[in-house]
Amino acid sequence: MFPLLKYTEGQVLEYFSRVTAEMVRASLRKERCDWFDLLNLLSPAAYPFMDEMRERARKARIRYYGKTVSVYAPLYIGNTCVNHCKYCDFRREHTGTVRRNLTMDEIRTEGEAIRAGGIDSLLIVAGEDPVVNSVEHLAEVGRMLKKMFSNLSLEVAPQSEEGYRELFRSGYESLTCFQETYDPVLYKEMHPAGPKSNYTWRLWTQLRAGKAGFRTLGCAFLLGLGPWRPEAASLGAHAFYLMKECYESKVQFAFPRFCKVEGGFVPPCEVDERDVDLMMLAFRIVFPQSCMTVSTREAPRFRDYIVQVAADNMSAGSRVTPGGYAVLEKEHASDVAQFTLTDRRTPAEVYAAIKANGQEVVYKNWDNRI
Ligand code: SF4
User: Fold this and answer.
1) Ligand 1 centre and the CA of 355: distance in Å?
2) Which residues line ligand 1 (CB under 6 A)?
């Protein structure tokens, strides 16, 4: 569990089992919800109320984000990694992965290809390799790409507060760091060695970035590693904590779910689409102002639906391998991705789907260069 919570996983599971329909109704009647309301809305007793929850979430979403969907794309700059995450094909010992770190010219080429598709908000992703992806290198990348994109986000190894200050100065403003699991024992099992094996260092990443000035602090756990309800309860507690400590920043939620692939990692816990739906509705109701992303791992049909009722932003035309937008195409090389994409639509197809649902595509919703 999130360590500042005074409840054990067993107590939280027992609470979930005792939630009644009346408790769910009471939470839905409240204007402002607290952590226990979140638990009520995540409980099995909430399933029969999903239509009501959908309506409440939809209204909250419209109040804060209107009928708009922000779009972004990830840019993988390198996939060498010193960690041993059991579920990831970029892990150090995995020999089946073609390793590559893009040069500055290649990163520019990738950026130009993404920009040509209309995207103005970019997420820089890299494996954890302190020699290659040092703060200095990431800052250099940020300075170059900030000339092309309004908003730069980071999904790389956790840094010190001082490191985040330098990255913020170079143009990055948003951060994503999945805790993967809030259960320290399971965390150790899934991350047996390497810098990522340090649960505590990873847990306070958003706090360090928030203190360094980052505007958006992305939090998530990996759906499928541990039982999802206690993990979601921890995610909620983590978010409440960050909203208090980093009140000038916005919390952003993501709900990345394992997709089963032939011969790939088999997630220990099942999370179905209805559970993801329930979770996203519950988080939108309890955290109406927070940002929420829908993962590219979900099916196009689900993504198009959930951006109307809960999520406010989505990726478009994602490639999850270094060079996947333009460089590999030039070399006629194949794509070796970090995970399997379920939504493989082009940016134009994603924009068309958003518009077909009566929503507006937002390419830029922030620009600190102005
Ligand atoms: S999840 Fe991240 S840190 Fe872990 S092996 Fe994959 S790229 Fe490396």
Assistant:
1) 35
2) 81, 83, 85, 88, 90-91, 127-128, 196
Q: Is the pLDDT of residue 348 over 70?
A: yes
341, pLDDT greater than 90 = no
Distances (CA, A) of 106 to 109, 113, 151, 292, 325: 5, 11, 20, 30, 10
CA of 87 to the centre of ligand 1 (A): 9
For the chain, list the domains and their CATH numbers: 9-362 (3.20.20.70)
The values of phi and psi at residue 194, to 5°, are: 85, 170
Nearest CA to ligand 1 atom 2: 127
Q: What is the DSSP string of 268-334?
A: SS---HHHHHHHHHHHHHHSTTSEEEE-TTS-HHHHHHHHHHT--EEE-S---STTTTTHHHHHTPP
pTM for this entry: 0.95
pLDDT at position 3 is 96
